Amino acid sequence: MKLTMTVTVLLLASFCSAHAQVSPPAAANATIGGKKLSISYSAPSMRGRKIMGGLVPYGEWWRTGADSATMFRTEADLDIGGLKVPKGAYSIYTLPGAKEWQLIVNKQTGQFGTEYDQKQDLGRVKMNLTQTPAPVEKFKIELLSTGGNKGLLKMTWERTELSVPITVQ
Which phi and psi (to 5°) does residue 118 adopt? Predict the structure, then answer.
């Protein structure tokens, strides 16, 4: 009886583990103007779900990934789409919309993604919104150097691509 129960528990644990839906950790890194910028996040997948306007509702702030709040670190003072961001560590959230998105830079760090405190916002900026030519299964954040002290923060998922320019001060 004890052996049967042990085998059953092991089989159940193995089955659950094999079928668990996880959002793996991901990172984006870039050197812009000689300074390092990095983003740490969890990358959820579509898995057949409606994402924009569904899993990610319009008009409500979103943790911009899964699990813990998305962490942004910069070695330099930045201008992100017109928002002055001093060097340091921040959390990144977004405010999705059908026709417009905003990037939220928040001074609180280390919290779970659902623990958003608007009073801690450093600021918000409009993001450029376009549609991808094909669906993107896994949420992706990129930091891209576009030359000199200029760069781009880019996010893609489902059929949505968002971007905002970054300038190292």
Answer: -60, -30
φ, ψ for residue 120, nearest 5 deg: -90, 5
The contacts of residue 67 (CB under 8 Å, 6+ apart) are 23, 42, 112, 113
The pTM of this model reads 0.87
Q: What is the signed CA dihedral for 74, 29, 99, 49, rounded to 10 degrees?
A: -130
Give backbone dihedrals phi and psi of 90, rounded to 5 degrees, phi first: -145, 165
Q: How far apart are CA 139 and CA 63, in angstroms?
A: 12
DSSP codes joined into one string, the chain = -HHHHHHHHHHHHHHHHHH-----EEEEEEEETTEEEEEEEE--B-TT--TBTTTB-TTS-B-SSSSBPEEEEESS-EEETTEEE-SEEEEEEEE--SS-EEEEEES--S-BTT---GGGEEEEEEEEEEEEEEEEEEEEEEEEEEETTEEEEEEEEEEEEEEEEEEE-
Contact residues for 146 (Cβ-Cβ < 8 A; gap 6+): 152, 165
pLDDT in tens, 87-120: 999 999 999 999 999 999 999 999 999 999 999 9
Report the C-alpha gap between 67 and 31 in whole angstroms.
26
- Residue found by looking up tokens 């991901």 in the block: 26
